[in-house]
From TrEMBL:
It comes from Methanorbis furvi. This is Uncharacterized protein. The chain crosses the membrane at residues 12-29, 35-54, 61-80, 86-106. The keyword Transmembrane helix applies. It comes from the Archaea. The lineage of its organism: Archaea, Methanobacteriati, Methanobacteriota, Stenosarchaea group, Methanomicrobia. Keywords: Membrane, Transmembrane, Transmembrane helix.
Length: 108
């Protein structure tokens, strides 16, 4: 495994830990388990897609896995959450912002 893949792996695990923290906070604020899981999956999927395009060569498996996570997360958020949509939207926007930060930081 080269330096590029090692960098992508490290950023991915740090992003997963960060999205887990955000999902715990969203769940703690009363949104429910499925809404928190949706925020986690949506954010993690978007970060995986950003890493696939920004770091190293483009991997279709990583991009496809990220897209699958994002779609499942969006379904959880839209269909199964009886929570305040502004709170869930805030968690999803944090995930999108983290994906953009990862993309910009890794591109340099």
């Amino acid at each position: 495994m080269g330096k590029t893949e090692d960098k992508r792996f490290q950023i991915a695990w740090l992003s997963v830990i960060l999205m887990l923290g955000i999902a715990v906070l969203v769940g703690y604020l009363g949104t429910g388990l499925l809404a928190a899981a949706g925020v986690f999956l949506l954010g993690t999927g978007l970060i995986m897609i950003a890493l696939s395009f920004a770091v190293g060569k483009r991997e279709p498996v990583i991009t496809g896995g990220g897209a699958l996570f994002a779609v499942i997360g969006a379904i959880f958020i839209l269909l199964y959450s009886g929570a305040d949509m502004l709170l869930v939207l805030g968690g999803a926007l944090i995930g999108i912002a983290l994906a953009a930060i990862v993309y910009v930081a890794a591109k340099k």
